[in-house]
Amino acid sequence: MFKQVLPVAILSAFMVCGVRAQSPTAKFSRWSIGLAAGPAFPVGNFASKALNSNESGHAHTGPGAELVVMRRFTRHVALVLTAAAANNPIGTYTTLISQATGGVTIRSGPWKSVRFGVGLGYEHSLFRRLSFDVRATAGVLKTAVPGYSYQLPNYIDYTLVPATPLQIIYSSRGLPWSFVYAAGAELKWPLKGRFFLCANACFAAAHYDILYSYVDQFTGATSYRVNAVQHHQPIAVIQAGVGAGVRL
What we know:
eight-stranded antiparallel beta barrel
């Protein structure tokens, strides 16, 4: 609980200091819009490759992008709106489906996610031109169970030439919207006019309960057993990016 409250308390303290320090007659841009792109690094269990955990996401680093809109109430305090997307590949990994089947190699599609958030931010000038802002948001995230396939080494498909182990294929399926929280920071360097360059980083996390199904044993030509495994799947990434924006 303390770890969750501390960032909010620090951000609130910055905001109070900013309100007290601002000049009531100074003019400033109310709106800013920035777009940045870069790598999305999976963290925690989302990046874990452990085979004995039902929270391992097997995610790898992939591309991501984030749009940040800020509407400043004062020179320092702002309402923040965000929209972001990430694509984290999985590739192949080996797992144990059942004792009857043994270890199989899973070939999986990527984790694809989009999220939207709203929250508060604090912006402050570090030097003559460079500015720095921090923000905390909450919102919703949408993702899908990646499609995956594997071969059952103990069962041969003789309809193929040459005969090969039977391949099981599951298509990607969408998941419902989930709550997501995020915290980020950004540096802005002004260009000519109202434009600026930006570099940012943001941590975002959500959780899902996902039921995976595996065909693990055939009892006849068309009869088979399905083994269902419940996964408590965290979705957690640190997105870093560089880009540009405009003040309005």
